[in-house]
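Table S5 (text form). Sequence records supplied for joint modeling of the two-component complex.
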Amino acid sequence: MKVLLVEDNERVTRFVVKGLQEAGHVADHADNGRDGMFLAASEPYDVIIMDRMLPGQIDGLAIIEALRKAGNRTPILILSALSDVDERIRGLKSGGDDYLTKPFAFGELLARLDALGRRAQGIGTQTSLRVGDLHIDLLSRKATRGARTIALQPQEFKLLEYLMRHAGQVVTRTMLLENVWDYHFDPQTNVVDVHISKLRQKIESDSERPLLRTVRNAGYMLSADE
Amino acid sequence: MNRFLGSSAFTLAFSYVAFGIAALVLFAAPLWYAWQVTIQESRTEILRADIQRLSEVFRREGTRGLSAFIDNRVGMQIPGERILLLTDPDLQRLAGNLPQWPAGIPAAPGTYTLPVNLSGKQTHAMFVHTVLPGGYNLLVGRDQSLFAPLAPRFWYGLGAAVAVLSIAGALGGLMIRRAVLVRVDGIRQTVLAIVQGDWSHRLPTKTTSDELDTLSRTINGMLDQLEQLLHGVRDVSNSIAHDLRTPLAELRSRLEELSLTRPGPEETFAQIDGAVADVDRVIRIFNALLRLAEIDTGMRRSGFVSVSAADIARQAVDFYLPAAELKSIVLTYRGNGPAELSGDPVLLAQAIGNLIDNALKYATDGGLITVEVQTLPDGKVWITVADDGPGIPDEEKPKVSTRFYRGDASRGTPGVGLGLTLVASVAKVHGGVLELADNNPGLRANMIIPVQAGTGAPMVAGPSTGVGQPASAGQEPTALGAAPAAHNLRIRSVS
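The corresponding structure-token record, covering 721 residues in total, follows.
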């Protein structure tokens, strides 16, 4: 993916750019609002990471609003030290697609970027999803693995659907909390892990190949590959 | 005096005096004019009537008769009041009380006012001159000196009125200054004291509710709220100073040790992972504190919508169900109706989540946790999370909702010790309370929230709250920032 990072903190920039390159992405960066605006408007990017408070007379939200007004639909992840719920809502309202609060774990950032980049490629209006021999029907809300039917609670189905939509990507606990349960807070205990292990028991019987992997220090990944 | 001249009381008094004088002049001027005109006319009228009568005598009895009549009248009269003179066509005196024709009165008939010498006395007199048939001149006059003092008297009276008005105005101004500006000065002094950092001051209020009093109460309400916000900020900084130091110290010693001992790569990476976990813990505490501050200052009020507490609780139960099953704990939901209330769904979900999380932490394996949402007829929604764990001893109950307090029973369990504080704050921002009661055995945590937020504990103090309320000096937060949150916790023992 080609990623643009608009961020004025040098150390954060170095850390993110290096991480993105190691993950196989191409990263451009701008350290002020003006350059950021120019690059975002003139180059095609798959995803833009936008800091909110920037030098150069134009802040992150203003850039996003201007891009959206100009018809630019590139997915944008807002990276900000402003953590209030209200600030988050403002960020998303201005046209941002996701909001990540500083300080952040790189794994979280990478997972969210992947999710945004994939989403832009368009899933369209799919009625079923498939990962290996695991298949779910979004209309009848039924899940099968090979010939075996899997009985799922509505909540488990929602969790599996999210994992399957992001198959092959790392999905963090926070992403699951936000997207499956719509919880924007830290529930302290490892409830998400419990949900995952319960789901894993259902979709992976002893004889079947594991599909749902735990990615250390990041989250989970559903994938048919070894 | 300079302060008085520059004060609004002076301006007020001065304007009132100016208006008063203007009114007085407007009243006096027409009066003066009317007086002058009317008196003059009636005097002339009287003199003309006299002339009419004398002309009648002249027509009937001729010169001789009129002379006799005039002499008779002059003889009867108090000298000086009525002036009468009859002359022949050559202006030679025939009868009357003037020795000769006064200089200055022309031969033509008419009305004249002029100074004359009247039996040795210099005075002003008014004359009417008529020419009788045969060229005889008749002069009828009247001494004006009797009316002369009236005009100065009028002016003296007017001057005195103006003087009284001015003095009254000045005194009034002084009194306004005493009554009102002294109080304004009091407000100023109080505000100055507060600006200098002493938040225990409040504006003095009286029982009368005049404008100044109402203003004072409103300002007191504002001060209460500002003080609350200030305490919130102070709380956060105290808490940060107190409780972020520990994990930061751990992190520092870990890194320092790593730098000193320089172990092999395997151990180094294990230590780095540990350090990242330490930082994550610091971030979690930090986020929790910021969130608490955000809630405590009432900022989230703006996000209130109509929500169903029952739906939120049911979702939370679903969310925690697998975690409960893992510990063989039975987690159930009970409720009557949707329990609609005006609130913040994110905060309510977090609060209920914290309560369930708490119960899960302390409940023994195979135990029972019940989440119950009920709307009571008094318009309050009770959100109850009850467990059959060890419960909290009565003496610890007031402390558990204070920041970072962790009971003896919680040693060795995860958590940063802000859970119940957050629940208490969420209840408070919804105008409700958190009540901790005994479940015999176990803990029964009740969030009691009015259906309409704000009917409970108002965040913005209305005018009435300032009355007689002692300054909140006694609410100085403890080092742990315990006081404000503990206000909202009710303890009830059911035995």
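Note: The first strand of chain B starts at residue 82 and ends at 87.
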